[in-house]
Amino acid sequence: MTEPVVPMVKAEGVRKSFGAHRVLRGIDLEVAPGEVTCLIGRSGSGKTTFLRCINHLEKISGGRLSVDGELVGYRQRGDKVYELHDRDIARKRAEIGMVFQRFNLFPHMTALQNVVEAPVRVKKEPRASVVERAAALLERVGLGGRASFYPSQLSGGQQQRVAIARALAMQPKLLLFDEPTSALDPELVGEVLDVMRGLAADGMTMVVVTHEMGFAREVGDNLVFMDGGVIVESGAPREVLSNPTDERLRTFLSKVL
Amino acid sequence: MTSPRKASSPAPPGTTAGPTADSPASGPAPADITAVPLRHPGRWVASAVVAVLFAMLVHSLVSNPRFQWHVVGHYLFSEQILRGLWATVYLTVIAMAIGIVGGAALAVMRLSPNPLLGGAAWLYTWFFRGTPVLVQLLFWSFISAVYPRLSLGVPFGPEFVHGSANQFISIFTAAILGLGLNEAAYMSEIVRAGILSVDPGQNEAALALGMPRGLLMRRIVLPQAMRVIIPPTGNETISMLKTTSLVSVISFTEILYAAQAVYARTYQTIPLLIVASIWYLALTSLLTVGQYYLERRYGRGVAARGATPPQKLRALMTSLRAPDSSGAR
Ligand SMILES: Nc1ncnc2c1ncn2[C@@H]1O[C@H](COP(=O)(O)OP(=O)(O)O)[C@@H](O)[C@H]1O
Ligand SMILES: [Mg+2]
């Protein structure tokens, strides 16, 4: 008999509106620890918004969302729910890594400084050990020789790999990727996907918004198709991609494949 | 990176450049152009006119006895003037410190989601930018006429400390308040523009790493905003240095007041005004150099970093001393 596993991400009827604009209309999703979930869908279907809700960069308007068994942005005591203090929200975010489409590296810091910054300043770890770990992480993403380069001196693919190393340095239990290769020249996409493939193999729990169907098919444990703020279809990637049932998914796939 | 390429492709722009020019099929590369350079007679005339005017100016400065250069030399380092100079320096430093700290606070207030804080900051800026700093200085120096008694305590409740306003608001305090509070209004706009210039993605990234607001501002946003903030702040500091001369109207002894005190006694007005001007020029020059290095520091990772002027000078000296090693040129 196996213990019941606490899902890393659990969304139940998650809704989100910007004013009158209902962007998420009831998302139900579970991501088990060690699993890779790929999120696909047309532009504007709410993928980024959902990802941002997971680390509370956006506040959900309804439903329930928890990470590793704890509500996002709230604390439950008895049957009452309290809003969390900014400090506690920040502490929770520190456990979730995020990688952005446009990298968002800190341009005034070198690659190494980018990676070292948060563990030292946020988690207050001793600098020497963080620097050692950061150097190893840069080595791991294939940028050992670029530690002292500023982001402006790196290619898009290299910047994104630094961004991944920066997220990893916080030793997150969950990594969120928002179209990590969409801003890259085609010949640079592979080097970033290779790093992500490695992470998946090492058992990192990841939620990946992507248009790379090859990656989703190969690496994903779960493929989720969103449209109009709801999950239309989900399941094992091979299954979903080869036998799409919903018309909207079929139309979408015919455009991206 | 580009220079070797330039050197190896002698084809000037406009002629058949590109891969065909280098391919063996197109025959020998075209020779360098040897053209007669274009003449610029207008430039020569203008230069001559400027040179003559400059010579006249120097001649007049040197030969007109009413400049009394020996008096200038006598007072330039006199104790009275140096004391005034020192007062100008610390007044500038303190007023700018108040201006920068106050300005940053006002800018953060303006950008806060709280409409009351934003409104208060807006009102402050509206008032202090909308009235002349000279009027504000006079106002602070006469504050005891409006509030003869100042006290510290619970609002509308008991007082802990109190005393006459004249006791708290000395001329020095009036000068500091007048200049500093006015400066804060200008600095708030500069800081706000700087903060707004930073890519919102930077906020996102820092938040996602778990940084609290304060750390995010201090480590991520402000260092990047500095690039936008420093040049106008340099201007403000230079401007402040000269604006301090206004406090002479409330009898605060800075360098202009010190110079005035001397010529009120000796009637050597012009030479003493020259003394003050020389010191102002010296200080602004110093500030300009400081600004250059600050801009370099905060341009890290963004601007291409050339050599500093001293480094360039040193390189020039070395190349002059060893002409063969200067290679390409
Ligand atoms: N901060 C915001 N304010 C208002 N509307 C927003 C905001 N963020 C996203 N939206 C809207 O939500 C919808 C979904 O956006 P997004 O989650 O970015 O979609 P996707 O990532 O799938 O392309 C879009 O219509 C977008 O205009
Ligand atoms: Mg998106």
The average pLDDT score of chain B comes to 84
Series of secondary-structure elements of chain B, N-terminal to C-terminal: HHHHHHHHEEHHHHHHH
The helix content of chain B is 55-70%
Helix tally of chain A? 9
Largest sheet of chain B: 2 strands, antiparallel
Strand content of chain A: 25-35%
What is the SS-derived class of chain B? mainly alpha
Unreliable stretches covering 5 or more consecutive residues of chain B? 1-24, 325-329
Alpha carbon gyration radius of chain A: 18 Å
**Strand percent estimate of chain B:** under 5%
Largest inter-chain contact set:
A-B, 34 and 22 residues
Radius of gyration of chain B: 29 Å
Please provide a written account of the structure.
The complex is a heterodimer of chains A (257) and B (329). With 257 residues, chain A is an alpha/beta fold. Helices cover 36% and strands 26% of the residues of chain A. Chain A has nine helices and twelve strands. In chain A, α3 packs across α4 (127-140). The model of chain A has no long low-confidence stretch (mean pLDDT 94). Chain B has 329 residues and is mostly helical. Helix content of chain B is 69%, strand content 3%. Chain B has a two-stranded antiparallel sheet. Chain B is flat, with a radius of gyration of 29 Å. In chain B, 25% of the residues are buried. The A-B interface holds A 55, 57, 86-87, 90-98, 100, 102, 104-110, 117-118, 121-123, 150-152, 163, 166-167, 170 and B 199, 201-202, 204-213, 215, 219-220, 223-224, 298, 300-302. Magnesium ion is lined by residues 47-48, 178-179 of chain A.
